[in-house]
């Protein structure tokens, strides 16, 4: 069997969220950027491009250049003068370019920004925090992988397998590039321990139409339930250890192409500086 040889390059251009004036890539907009930050509005714009070439093996040789554009807005309701301990998040996502997986034959997608060419509302949620931020309840369109089954250092890798595992990804839950409505609860028992639990609509978007934003609660969607507990290290020595489990009730075809109406799994994650 022939192997696959892939050449990879990547670029990233970002405008950071709230920071000091000198670190804003596009400046302070005549003082308006700082004024918005003081009123609780954070903004982040990120453009990413990968260049991947299959030069041997795979399904076909050639070059693909997937690209990703993120526009993230977060509003602190307290700083905005509304009410304390709340935050609103809106995440707009644009994707374009080629699909390296069609050449490589990758099961989970070769590039972690590979997605159908479209522009959509990726996340839109409200989170309220209680008990000095020890408890947080989030409601809305939300990416499971923003909180669950994720490690900080996996973000430096380009292949999607370093993100959420294929065991969860294969059931089509609320993850990149399409999310579904859900409720997520986060509890920090101590500064170094956490407990996460969430329930989401079992089918994200419209599987028959990957373009644009689709929110629906159709018969047979089922639910996706996930929970995770873990410990975190401090600033002097960062580490993360976590264990979790998930259950999915929607009808899907598994990795072998067989229909399933009951999927469950467990996972463990860990990293350290």
Can you offer a commentary on this structure?
This protein has 273 residues and is mainly β. It has helices spanning 32-38, 100-104, 166-169; strands spanning 5-15, 41-56, 62-64, 67-76, 86-96, 118-130, 135-142, 180-190, 193-201, 223-232, 239-248, 252-253, 259-260, 263-272. Strands 1, 2, 3, 4, 5, 6, 7, 8, 9, 10, 11 and 14 form a twelve-stranded antiparallel β-sheet that branches. A two-stranded antiparallel ribbon has the order 12-13. The relative contact order is 0.11. The mean pLDDT is 86.
In whole angstroms, how far apart are the ends? 38 Å
Overall, the morphology is globular
Which structural class is indicated by helix and strand composition?
mainly beta
The arrangement of helices and strands along the chain is EHEEEEHEEHEEEEEEE
Query: Helical stretch count?
Result: 3
